[in-house]
Structures are given as C-alpha cells and as structure tokens.
C-alpha cells in the first residue's frame, strides 16, 4: 500500500513510501500509549489554562468594544477585537467543540453546548469537521476539506477550465472564510453539478439562517448602534476584525493541510483500515508550523496540526510536549515529520494553488523551472 504526495516538486517529497516497510501495529500502539498517558494526566493545570484563555479572550473583547467609543483609539479597538475573535475561533471554540474539555463538567466548555463567534452553527461544523474531516482525513472523494468544494488542491482532482480561477477562488475564500465554512455543508459544487438537490440540504437551512442572522445583527447592527454617532466607524471596525480573523484562520488551516509534501489517499487504500494505518494517514496528511509559544496559542495550537489530527480530543495545550515524542517515533519508524516556519509553509501552499490551476503538464514544467529549495531539510530538522 502506498501513498502519494500532492506536489510534483521533488524537493518537497516527505512521504514515507510503502507501508510495507513499517510495522503499523507497533507504530499505532506507541501512539495509543501517548494518548492514554496524557488523558490519564489531565487535571487542574489544563482546566486553569482554558479558563485563563477564556478570561483573556473576554477581556480583549470588552476592551475592543469599549475603545470604539474613543475615536482616536479605533486601531487599538480593532486590534483587541481581532485578538478576541481569533482566540474564540482557534484556541477556545475549535478545541472545546472537539470535546477536549468535556471531562471538566463545565457547561460553558462542553462540546455539546458551546457556540462560537462565527457564521457557522456549531452543530453543523461538528458534523462536517469533527466527523467527516477527522474520520476521512485526506481521503480523496471522502474528505470535502480537500479544496472545500471550490479549489483544486490535489493532482488527482481532475483538471477543468474552471480551476484556472484557483488563485482567485482561494483569495475570496480567505477573505470570507467564515462564510465558506458556514456554507461548506450545503455542497454548492455538487448542487451545481446536478449531483445533489437544494432540497437535500433543507435540514441545514433553518439553523444556518438563524446563526447568520444573529451574527450579522450583533456585529453589524447592535454593537455599532450602541456607539451612536460613531456607528459607521464601529461597523467598519467590526467588519475589519472579522476580516483579520478570517485571513489568519485560513492561512493557519491551509498551512496545516496543504503545503508541499502532504499526502492524500485513495478510498481503496483505506478500506478495512487498522488503527496504525489511521495514525499513519493522519500524520502524512498534516504539516506543522514552527513558532513561538504566543504564536501557537494564537493558532489554537493548530500549528501542531500533526498532533491535532493524531489526537483531536486531547487538549491542544498538550500538543507541544506530545510533538517531541511523535517526532522521535517518526524518526525511528522512518516516517517523515513535515514541519517548517509559517513563511515557508505559506509560500508552498500559494505555489500549489497556482500550479494546480493549470493542466498538470504545464504545472510540472513551472515547478521544474523554479530554483530548488532545501525544504526537506527544514521539514525534518529538529
């Protein structure tokens, strides 16, 4: 059984090759052991951490809302509100809805009850993300996060003239990412192709429209109205904060899923999949981003996307310590560990989006014409 990467640039190849060279049962057992040890160790430090993050997020939101009443402080208001929205989206909402803190018994941090500050209803997101994406990670035809039904992000997606707009579609998705996530389950691409009817998504409409209404009223009417004559400035500030959050979230997620060297799998390869192969697929279908402790917090620790895909229900604050062990296990089993700084991963994603916009033959020619990059060394470096 083999995997294939989504890049033809050989300087980026970091897949492990045939799983026949790897004892997947032993590999899976080692990762299971990490998971069980961390779960058994969860306690007050983890609870205190997430409560501190929630308190900090709320403090930034209150500060941002208040500073809109002081026109000279408008940039500070936007910055504070942006930080609040990023923390709510990444380190709190995403992780809480994965059930990472259900063990605390705190209703405010329970995956079944939490609702986040974005256009997508939490129940809808938990199905498309927690179930579909994390179950079928990088399986072509199963994982709809590969391209989000809009982009061509893998060579095994058949090229069509429509994909010439890949860079434009990616830019629009980045700017309106919360809308893209909210509409993801409606599967517009399949509706447009005649593979699905609008009526088949009817069960999603009421909840989606209600969430969009509530978010729109809050950010674009209620809070701006509370500032009276400063309504236009507050409206613009709220819109800019949402835009900043969208751009940040898009870039972090795409750098964790689509840089060169990340592998995809066929449905046939994953039939009757063992636990060890599931771990193997999660690891090769992900990439990490190096950075400071603050950077990791602002990404919701999704800068450790490898560890998140391996252990989605473990509190994300544990990923940095787990990453040391995961990397060591990968080295022993000869499995590459894809990691690099934000700029390099982001540049890799951008090149892939542009290269896959054109027919494969032209994309390969363009890749060969570029100067080679020593990406393998940076990806595998300790």
Mass-distribution shape: globular
Q: How many helices in DSSP terms? A: 16
**How far from one another are the termini?**
28 Å
In angstroms, what is the radius of gyration? 21 Å
Helix and strand composition category: mainly alpha
Q: Percentage of helical residues?
A: 55-70%
Order of helices and strands: EHHHHHHHHHEHEHHHEHHH
Taking strands numbered 1, 2, ... along the chain, how are they ordered across the largest sheet?
1-2
Which whole number gives the mean pLDDT?
90
* Main sheet attributes: strand count, strand direction, barrel closure: 2 strands, antiparallel
Spans where pLDDT lies below 50 across 5 or more residues? 4-17, 372-382
User: What percent of residues are in strands?
Assistant: under 5%
Number of strands: 4
Provide a descriptive summary of the structure in words:
There is one protein chain. The protein is mostly helical. It is built from 16 helices and 4 strands. The protein has a two-stranded antiparallel sheet with strand order 1-2. α2 packs antiparallel against α3 (74-96) and α8 (202-226) crosses α9 (231-257). The model is unreliable at 4-17 and 372-382 (pLDDT under 50).
Summarize this structure briefly.
Helices cover 58% and strands 3% of the residues.
Topology:
Layout: E1 4-5, H1 24-41, H2 44-67, H3 74-96, H4 122-135, H5 166-175, H6 177-183, H7 188-192, H8 202-226, H9 231-257, E2 263-264, H10 275-284, E3 288-290, H11 293-298, H12 305-310, H13 319-333, E4 339-341, H14 342-355, H15 360-369, H16 375-380
Parallel strand pairs: 3-4
Antiparallel strand pairs: 1-2
Helix pairs in contact: 1-10, 1-13, 2-3, 3-9, 8-9, 9-14
